[in-house]
Amino acid sequence: MNQTLQLGPLAFPFALLLAMAALALGLFAGRALGRRTGVDPEPLLWRLLAVGAIAARLAFVLQFHDAYLKAPLQILDVRDGGWTPLAGFAAAAIYAIACGLRRAPLRSPLAAALGTVTIVWAVGTLVLGALSGEVGRLPALRLQALDGRTVALADFQGKPTVLNLWATWCPPCRREMPVLLQAQGQRPEVNFVFLNQGESGPTVQAFLAAQGLPLRNVLLDARGEAGIQLGHRALPTTLFFDAQGRLVDTRVGELSPATLDQRLAAASPSSPTK
């Protein structure tokens, strides 16, 4: 099953769409019950959303503070996908309880909103898990390297492996390349494999030379077969496999040092995060 909704050049992971749907339905339920009881909970519901989002971001930043200390402004760049949803939900719930204790008429709308979000998220997560089928594995593909060799992706099994689907024309792909290059040098126990999607060898070589990116394991996936087999067509997409070749995590979108560290921990939990 494809795990993203593709609308022209835009791609939306189903997990993100589920979160947006859960929040929208929660707001709708809270507002509907508020109207019936003669109160307007909408301003408070939006504050709950803001509290949850800020708490989810701050919890992630604190967990990976070393990475953000090197570049503090990256804390504000939420494009990296660095969130701790459970912390956000807990903060929103605590704030809702505190508000409900002070204003009794708001208790029912707040409970309806939080309950709806919880149910939609839980059911949606179970449905997405069931539709995704069995755990993905390293694709059984043989691709051409820049030096002309043919490389089987299965040969990377035995060590945790990071597959990055990218293209030279993709701005977020270009922005995250230095992050992946640094990790490749710091994490010799992990295979970093760069699968260029649909471009020629000379184009890729010219780009890497111009950008000063001495990447290893750059392979040409001329027909985008890896993305098709793994259900991901959006760029950039980075897939994380454990040493047995099982898919353990996926990031659709740009990586920062912190979000890369987070996902590397899932692929190689016994290795220290650097």
UniProtKB/TrEMBL annotation:
<keyword id="KW-1133">Transmembrane helix</keyword>
<dbReference type="InterPro" id="IPR013766">
    <property type="entry name" value="Thioredoxin_domain"/>
</dbReference>
<dbReference type="InterPro" id="IPR050553">
    <property type="entry name" value="Thioredoxin_ResA/DsbE_sf"/>
</dbReference>
<keyword id="KW-0676">Redox-active center</keyword>
<feature type="transmembrane region" description="Helical">
    <location>
        <begin position="12"/>
        <end position="32"/>
    </location>
</feature>
<dbReference type="Pfam" id="PF01790">
    <property type="entry name" value="LGT"/>
</dbReference>
<feature type="transmembrane region" description="Helical">
    <location>
        <begin position="44"/>
        <end position="62"/>
    </location>
</feature>
<dbReference type="InterPro" id="IPR013740">
    <property type="entry name" value="Redoxin"/>
</dbReference>
<feature type="domain" description="Thioredoxin">
    <location>
        <begin position="132"/>
        <end position="269"/>
    </location>
</feature>
<dbReference type="InterPro" id="IPR001640">
    <property type="entry name" value="Lgt"/>
</dbReference>
<keyword id="KW-0472">Membrane</keyword>
<dbReference type="Pfam" id="PF08534">
    <property type="entry name" value="Redoxin"/>
</dbReference>
<dbReference type="InterPro" id="IPR036249">
    <property type="entry name" value="Thioredoxin-like_sf"/>
</dbReference>
<feature type="transmembrane region" description="Helical">
    <location>
        <begin position="82"/>
        <end position="101"/>
    </location>
</feature>
<dbReference type="InterPro" id="IPR017937">
    <property type="entry name" value="Thioredoxin_CS"/>
</dbReference>
<feature type="transmembrane region" description="Helical">
    <location>
        <begin position="110"/>
        <end position="131"/>
    </location>
</feature>
<keyword id="KW-1015">Disulfide bond</keyword>
<keyword id="KW-0812">Transmembrane</keyword>
<keyword id="KW-0201">Cytochrome c-type biogenesis</keyword>
<protein>
    <submittedName>
        <fullName>Redoxin family protein</fullName>
    </submittedName>
</protein>
